[in-house]
Amino acid sequence: TEQTRDWLQSYTDDWVSFYRKHTSDGEVASYIPELLKADPDALGITVIGKNGMTLRSGDVNTTFTLQSISKVISFVVACMERGVAYMLDRVDVEPAGEAFNSIMHLEMKQLKKPFNPLINAGAITVTSILEGRTSDEKLEPMFELLEDMLGHRPELDVDVYESERDSSMRNRAIGYYLLETGFLESDMSVTLETYFKQCSIDVSIDDLARIGMILANDGRDPETGEEIIPRQIARITKALMLTCGMYDASGKFATYVGIPAKSGVSGGIIAAVPPRVRDEELPFLSGCGIGVYGPSLDDKGNSIAGIRLLRHIANQWDLSIF
Ligand code: GLN
Question: Where do the annotations place substrate binding (predicted)?
Answer without folding.
Answer: 68, 120, 164, 171, 195, 247, 265
